[in-house]
Task: structure prediction
Amino acid sequence: MFAEIISFVYVLLLWKYDKKHSASPVRLKQIISISAPVFIPCTASAGIRSALSAIENNLIPKGLMQYGALKEQALSEYGIISGIALPYVLFPSVLIIPFSQLIVTELAQERTLGHKKNIRRIALRSLRATIIYSLIMMLPFLVCPDVIVSMTGVCRESIFYLRVLAPLIPLSYLDSAVDGMLKGLDCQKSYFHINIIESVIRVIMAFTLIPFFGPAGITAIILFGELINVTLSLWKLLDVIKT
Result:
């Protein structure tokens, strides 16, 4: 909270400084009209997705208990997957997330200038680099998850889930990069629709699969949901680049 307050004050001071020294200050109405098509879909996507994610998180323990597990056992299984395996698998994405944010401005500038060849070159090069990096990061989780567990000292029950969730690495990292490129190419509405579709599918799967398949249903939800998201996002990105 303290960091957010400092960030807000710093941005406010910069805004006041720019307002005083700008030769032609932009009115608030103009700022809102220009930025609304960008932040409204992104904000709506985050809000609706958070609500659907909360529903999904409530359905998972209940589904595990319907599967036949005791309450403590169900929560333990869910904790291993969401509290240990997922953070470990997604940890190397600390390098992809800043890249996906930086590429937004890069592609937005090229789009404004009408440099279609540069857009294709940047997008394809970014996709290639993301795929190579994610496959390299996936190998240790597929080949030697037991070594990762022994080095970090977490429970050995997570070894199985680390290996099962390893394919999430290329899907998740590619999804982050593609989402950033879609934002830079002014495809916020598509970004909104795709995220909502994924969240709805995950809720439906959590309601139907987990009572019958238990923990296997949880991993299926995570992998299939990310596969749907990255497939739709990548299809949209390639369509935009082509046209």
